[in-house]
# Entry
Amino acid sequence: MARIGYHASHEQFAPDALLRLARAAEAAGFAALSCSDHFHPWSERQGHSGHAWTWLGAALASTALPAGTVCCPFGRYHPAVIAQAAATLAMLFPGRFWLSLGSGEALNEHITGRPWPSKEMRNAALTASAEILRALWRGEEVSCDGPVRVDRARLYSRPERPPLLLGAALTEETARRTAEWADGLITVAAEHDTLRAVIGAFRERAGAGRPVYVQAKIAYSAHGDAAARALAFDQWRTNVFDSEIAADTETTAQFDALAARVRPEHLDAHVRISGDPGRHAAWLAADLDAGADVVLVHNVGTNQDEAIAAFAERVLPMLPT
# Structure
């Protein structure tokens, strides 16, 4: 299994630039790809929001790496449409495409004009969506009138093996719930004991055979810690709020207004900031030690080429393959 992957942020870069960076990451030795799935960026400074599913087809065709994304399957999407898109990618790129499901953020999902559901309602829709995806991938005709409505949907083009279906979780409670339906877990990097506890909660219910993916937010600069912090503050200060605020805030402008009170030091709890490649290697090694099977590195700065080159030369060679 791939160990260290590269995360492509559609909020921060245009799709053509991200495709070039994906190829550069593969050449540098990264072993997997992931990408965000946003309709809006978190801030005006980021300023992009390419279509993740279109891009994934290009990325999978342009590299030999496994790739996937985290999406909310029931807001601006419908689980039957996501099942169809995922089945097509799994047929075109057998064994390489994976999909993770999460409960979504109003930032992206409010565009349909429907009221934003409560977390409880979103959790119910998430579980129902996972069941719908699996039934469609089995070739069943699906009709249901629960948290998500489906009327006589059936997939006629299906892969021999359905894609790996991960569940997104940030807490131990959500990780346990995710284990009831997901093939694996995706979570975010945290302090060693916290990350180990989240992974442990998932494996307590799921057993040891299901993979765990971890997304690690980092900021690196060859010019030192202060330069890395400036890059992180410029691009990622809208991403320091708790999960409830992040899920319920509806517009880019609202996120920018909230971030007006954020100071550079507030990013330390959310982004691994260092100009020392050895420090980044140690952080990633700790993620693997905590139980991660795959760590997806998201450099939140705009200096992607610089960071990719540094990781190729001084970080990836220090980590187990």
